[in-house]
Design a protein that fits this description.
Elements (H helix, E strand, L loop, with lengths): L13 E6 L2 E6 L6 H13 L3 H25 L5 H27 L7 H14 L5 H12 L21 H6 L5 H13 L4 H24 L5 H11 L4 H10 L15 H8 L1 E2 L4 H7 L7 H6 L5 H17 L5 E2 L2 H10 L1 H6 L12
Parallel strand pairs: 3-4
Antiparallel strand pairs: 1-2
Amino acid sequence: MESNTANSGLSKKTVEKETGNIIDYVDLKKLPQFAVLNQQVLGLVNASSWWERHGQDWFLLLVSFAGYFSSYYLLTYSDPLTFVSGIFVLGLSHSSITVKSAHMAAHGAFSSSNICNRVLSFVCTDFIGTFSADVGYSIHVKCHHPHTNIIGLGDSSTFRASFVPSVLYMFVTPLLMPVLTPAVAMKEIMSKSALCIARHIFIAYIGLIFHIYLLMSISGLHISLALAVIFLSRDVLAIPYIHVNIFQHIGLPMYSQQHRPKKIYQMTTGVLNLPRNPILDFCFGHGIISCHTEHHLFPSLSDNMCLKIQPVVFKFCQEHDLPYHTDTYYGRVWHFLSNYKQLMVDSPPVTKFVGLQ
């Protein structure tokens, strides 16, 4: 069982925190400056080609759109295996566009042009995903990232559902995502301006109607089957989507707003990387799966660049005795099932951050 509270008997020079089966000791007197790592990463980014910085992720976005539209033709077949493969391809492509690409666009990581990133954000999030780019930006970019694992701000509490039993939460309730996503978007957008509300409703539901129209006109489906295909396709990766959102922060050290650590400490202690996986890498992106620590340290970098700087970040953490949390997907599933009450029902414990910042 994890304990995130520092032992009060320790020297003020050292913080002890236990994450899974790993115990790290960090000497706060020797805590490195983020600027040092930033300089190393900046040098690597500047030496990289456009293809490395942006091109590979643009190519994957085009592949995702190609898969999206090819699925309409697979769905024209009456053969059950081909029809199901159409749903599967549609689901993978939808996740790649609405999670990986939308995530990058929200962070301005797709292009050096703010306008380009903004337009892509509306296309990937509102038009394709029936969610709000404005809401996503407020919750994820403006709150979760600067306040990662700060209690009451970026502590991932929006993913907690204390009234749902562990097995149902982990493997059944995520299947409601196709319905919950637009519902949550509508609830959250109501706190925005009238322009944001009108823009979201117009773009999101024009996109949904257009999607239904293509399923009916190209795939030849009647409207009820078209809606069923949309629901099933958006459930293809709904379970791992919820999983990765809770695995990579919940259960790691959390801090109070009054005792915020430095950024380099906050991100290395409060973020976890999962192993590379071909499907999840394509659909969710390296910045969400295997390079989540790198993404939190450098959120404006593309997924491919997060992968490229990973050895630099890992070496920096090793040299300065900073934690670099990793675990297997199965390890996280078992850990959450075994400690569900502590992690998802009870209030998260606060790590006492010792030492002057």
